[in-house]
Design goal:
This protein is α+β, with helices and mostly antiparallel strands and about 140 residues long. The chain has a domain of about 90 residues: Sandwich (Immunoglobulin-like). The protein contains 1 helix and 11 strands, in the order αβββββββββββ. The strands form 2 sheets. Strands 2, 3, 5, 7, 9, 10 and 11 form a 7-stranded mixed β-sheet that branches. It has a 4-stranded antiparallel β-sheet with strand order 1-4-8-6, with no helix packed on it. The longest helix has 24 residues. The protein starts with a helix and ends with a strand.
């Protein structure tokens, strides 16, 4: 009978330890990208405020601790590249420079979802402090 109490106690202890380990290693709440925006900066144009060869700041709002990737479906580059860690502010930024005129769909990819925004890019002339944009 003594052996069966010991076995029951060992089983209960083991079960409790396993349950605690599962709780401690459970994944945190899902991370979500909640928005993406592009600041036009000091760009001037008659049909659009975004021009080729001119840099713009793109901001994604996401869950703290998530990683966000930026992508342009139509010939633009982001700096820095690769995954960007979202800090306590809940946002992450990168510089985007489009190299092709037309419609650009910009994407902010997170762990569980993505957000997009579409902007129109004209022919730009980078004048150092801003951009002059022609249709």
């Amino acid at each position: 009978m003594f052996g069966s109490k010991r076995t029951a106690a060992t089983a209960a202890t083991t079960f409790g330890a396993m349950a605690a380990a599962l709780v401690m290693t459970a994944p945190s709440a899902p991370a979500w990208v909640t928005g993406i925006s592009v600041a036009p900066g000091l760009s001037f144009g008659t049909s659009t405020t975004y021009g080729t060869s001119c840099p713009y700041t793109v901001t994604a709002n996401a869950t703290w601790g998530d990683y966000v990737y930026f992508y342009d479906y139509n010939g633009g580059v982001f700096s820095p590249t690769g995954p960007l860690w979202v800090g306590a502010s809940g946002s992450v930024t990168a510089q985007w420079t489009p190299y092709v005129r037309g419609s650009h769909t910009l994407v902010a990819w997170g762990q569980h979802n993505q957000q997009t925004t579409t902007v129109t890019v004209g022919s730009g002339t980078n004048v150092g402090f801003g951009c002059v944009v022609l249709p």
